[in-house]
Amino acid sequence: MAAQKSPDPVCEVVTALTLIDLCRISGSTTDWVIELVEEGILDPVGGGQSAWRFESSSITIIARVRRLQSDLRLNIPGAALVLSLADENARLKLRLMQMETDPPGAMAGSEPDR
Amino acid sequence: MDYKDYYKALGVERDATAEDIKRAYRKLVRKYHPDVNAGPDAAAAERKFKEVGEAFEVLSDPEKRAAYDQLGANWQEGQAFRPPPDWDAGFEYSGGRNPQADRDQFGDFFQDLFSQRAGFDRAARPGAQMHAPGQDHHAKIVIDLEEAYKGGSRDFTLRKPELDAEGHIVLRERAIRVTIPKGVSDGQHIRLAGQGAPGIGQGKPGDLYLEVAVTTRPGFWLEGRDVYMDLPVTPWEAALGARIGVDTPSGRVELQVPDHAQPGKKLRLKGRGIPGRPPGDLYAVVKIVIPPVETAKARQLYEEMARETRYDPRKKTGG
């Protein structure tokens, strides 16, 4: 493939996507993205649709909503609920795992008396 | 290639009705869906989700189910398997029912039975869409916390399904050098301009979007740009307060543990989280570690403390 021989590609962090950018990258219609904003699934900064700027994590959120809709036949409010519960659940599980893990250097059990 | 027991994957009997199969499938999809199972169980859940999807793909389609059943009931899950010659002879197929399914992600067993030998759904498989003009591609990369702090350059191998000349799905690998910008955080995307699908004619090639996942060592965790780390302290450091040296992702710092620090107390180091505008904060979370009582002297000191302090932590709990 020619691309492999070319110089290293330019990498940039994706920031502040407009509604148009986000729709193009995620292959969505503007109406559908607006619905996600109205439901609070996406949270752009800026007032008014033309001034909206989205975090790039919105791309992933959109893909998750799509999969939830097609795999679990959820509507948008249902997907919003699942996303927030799943994220909360992940945070709690991670925290629980951290709390149940002994820090390095701690003894796993008590040593027999000497 | 190992035999796969699709009935076992869905937890149904071999004589299950189509309704039973659908019900079992829906239940398992809710349980193992990757978007419902983020966090530490994600990888295990995703594996299970794919197994369930593959099993349903076959068992929900009367034609595929009949062909699969024809292999017989004596196979065991994981047993070395080779399809008998012409096992699919005499079956009439009408093509796939569920073109959205990620068939390219199914295992060898499925591919051998239903893709390469039997000629199911050749036209409907994904991968064909990869050739649309200038399409953007998406992939995920995993970096560690140090790379998020410092940035760096590293080669990643991306795999994408493509159709070969005979219409089989092959995973094509390509190595790509990614410059990880300093301060990239979990869930952000990196754009590699022009690294998506090639354009046709005058069309510009698409871009490649890499979703960044940041992994942490045990004892560290992230919330956005804020970084949390366990701070192991001794009981006397927690009781009396102490000035201690701590290795953080951005170097060694001196930290003041206040006296009477309880487990879970957060000590904030402003601006020492993942760099950015504004940078995140670093929180050291007090975790009291009880040292083993290894010497007679240590035992004597604990006993003396027990005698002298007469502290009863259960006094107020009513337990």
Describe this structure in words.
The complex is a heterodimer of chains A (114) and B (319). Chain A has 114 residues and is mostly helical. Chain A has a single domain, classed as Multidrug-efflux Transporter Regulator, Chain: A, Domain 2 (Orthogonal Bundle), CATH 1.10.1660.10. Chain A is built from five helices and one strand. The longest helix of chain A has 25 residues. Chain A is globular and about 50 Å long. With 319 residues, chain B is an alpha+beta fold. Chain B folds into three domains: 121 residues, DnaJ domain (Helix Hairpins), CATH 1.10.287.110; 86 residues, Urease metallochaperone UreE, N-terminal domain (HSP40/DNAj peptide-binding domain, Sandwich), CATH 2.60.260; 90 residues, Urease metallochaperone UreE, N-terminal domain (HSP40/DNAj peptide-binding domain, Sandwich). Helices cover 25% and strands 25% of the residues of chain B. Chain B has eight helices and eleven strands. In chain B, helix 2 runs antiparallel to helix 3. Strand 1 of chain A pairs antiparallel with strand 4 of chain B.
